[in-house]
Design goal:
1 helix; 0% strand
């Protein structure tokens, strides 16, 4: 897979042609916090109407 990343997201020592290891994972511990934040925002938005 090929895609472009902003330079500031790459390690400073990365150079053209380097192979980068990128790991994407699900953070199940943080999800409940986001769910609560989203619920709060939705409820606040509906209260405005």
């Amino acid at each position: 897979m090929t895609f472009n990343l902003p330079r500031e997201l790459l390690p400073r020592e990365a150079r053209e042609g380097d192979v980068l290891n990128i790991v994407i994972s699900v953070d199940n511990q943080t999800m409940p916090e986001y769910d609560e934040d989203i619920d709060t925002l939705i409820n606040e938005d509906f209260k405005k109407d």
